[in-house]
């Protein structure tokens, strides 16, 4: 029996309760979690913006230690430090055949399974986004389990599983920021902070952080921001002012709201690139007129999980960590327990802080 945070239904408060996990079957791994980050996507599952079968144990940004493995699992053994990849690729679908594993059609195929039971009444529980990391222990498919590279502390490694792959990938895979380019990052949460660090690593000449709160300036500057703009209706104009009236080469939107996406796009130069990382709802309509699309010659792209291939990107990220270029602990503004996740959601909605990290 282990403690877990369960989303019982859309709009209901999280239930912190005991669950019973099975021993790992063939192709499965049981993991004792060390840490799990609270990501905006967890909140999106509780409010219905994103949907998975419920009731489900949430949490998808986790790292821990292998407890036991089922038949056929050979790439990890008990005692190994591992990070969870919530979107494993199948290798068979059209996207996978093109090497676009972040778009795998079967990435969430495991979310419908019954993987555990509520201890109180034996009722079925689903594994949220595959890995159910808001629990002291979890049982997952082996293809979600990646070994933590040497030199990365286990609790920090949790962040690699979502926020850092996403922010780093937005800069390096989606926007492909080149040395000397100027970058604006909208939204200074966990992903935004990872994006700022990635822009610094890419050698951006100017990194402008934009947030609705004036209180995140120091956090943003520590992550590599050279300039800080408090969001207003003048944001795009302010950014043009900071870039010789041109606009930035690249904007990364980490919020998922129509007004922010539109502002990000407007803040780029003619021919600039905007990458949208934030996950918004269907009610967020972004409008463009035909003439401006032609005139500005800009690119607007969506970005899923940083367009990353976790097994290829983790070793690169670990190199940056070991060299001191990537500071994972700088993303974390709060260490919490499972019981504190609802208040971490409240902080997220209020736009406060960076990543909250659950420690087990
Ligand atoms: Zn996430
Ligand atoms: Zn696939």
How would you describe this structure to a colleague?
There is one protein chain. The protein has 360 residues and is α/β, with parallel strands linked by helices. Helix content is 27%, strand content 26%. The chain has helices spanning 40-47, 94-97, 154-174, 190-201, 217-222, 235-242, 258-266, 290-296, 310-322, 341-349, and strands at residues 2-7, 15-20, 28-38, 56-57, 62-69, 81-84, 116-118, 124-125, 137-141, 145-147, 182-186, 206-211, 227-230, 248-253, 268-276, 299-302, 332-336, 355-359. The strands form three sheets. Strands 3, 5, 6, 9, 10, 17 and 18 form a seven-stranded mixed β-sheet that branches. It has a six-stranded parallel β-sheet with strand order 13-12-11-14-15-16, sandwiched between helices. It has a five-stranded antiparallel β-sheet with strand order 4-1-2-7-8, with no helix packed on it. Helix 3 (154-174) crosses helix 4 (190-201). The chain starts with a strand and ends with a strand. The protein binds zinc ion (2 copies). One zinc ion binds at residues 89-90, 92-93, 95-96, 104-106.
């Amino acid at each position: 029996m282990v403690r877990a945070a369960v989303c019982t239904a859309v709009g209901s408060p999280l239930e912190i309760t005991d669950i019973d996990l099975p021993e790992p079957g063939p192709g499965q791994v049981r993991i004792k979690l060390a840490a799990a980050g609270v990501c905006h996507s967890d909140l999106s599952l509780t409010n219905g913006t994103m949907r998975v079968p419920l009731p489900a144990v949430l949490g998808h940004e986790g790292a821990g230690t292998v407890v036991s493995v089922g038949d056929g699992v050979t790439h990890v053994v008990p005692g190994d430090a591992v990070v969870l990849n919530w979107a494993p690729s199948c290798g068979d679908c059209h996207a996978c055949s093109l090497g676009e594993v972040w778009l795998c059609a079967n990435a969430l195929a495991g979310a419908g399974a019954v993987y555990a039971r509520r201890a109180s009444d034996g009722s079925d529980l689903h594994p949220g986004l595959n890995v159910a990391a808001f629990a002291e222990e979890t049982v997952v498919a082996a293809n979600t389990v990646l070994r933590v590279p040497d030199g990365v502390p286990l609790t920090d490694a949790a962040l690699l599983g979502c926020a850092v792959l996403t922010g780093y990938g937005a800069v390096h895979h989606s926007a492909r920021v080149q040395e000397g380019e100027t970058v604006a990052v909208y939204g200074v949460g966990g992903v935004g902070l990872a994006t700022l660090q990635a822009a610094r690593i890419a050698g951006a000449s100017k990194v402008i952080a934009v947030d609705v709160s004036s209180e995140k300036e120091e956090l943003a500057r520590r992550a590599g921001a050279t300039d800080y703009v408090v969001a207003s209706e003048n944001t795009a104009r302010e950014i043009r002012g900071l870039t010789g009236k041109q606009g930035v080469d690249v904007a990364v939107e980490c919020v998922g709201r129509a007004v922010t996406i539109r502002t990000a796009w407007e803040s780029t130069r003619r021919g600039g690139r905007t990458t949208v990382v934030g996950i918004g709802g269907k009610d967020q309509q972004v409008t463009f007129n035909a003439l401006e699309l032609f005139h500005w010659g800009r690119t607007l792209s969506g970005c899923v999980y940083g367009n990353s291939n976790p097994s290829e990107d983790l070793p690169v990220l670990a190199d940056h960590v070991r060299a001191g270029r990537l500071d994972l602990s700088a993303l974390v503004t709060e260490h919490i327990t499972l019981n504190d996740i609802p208040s971490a959601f409240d902080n997220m909605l209020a736009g406060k802080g960076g990543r909250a990290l659950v420690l087990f």
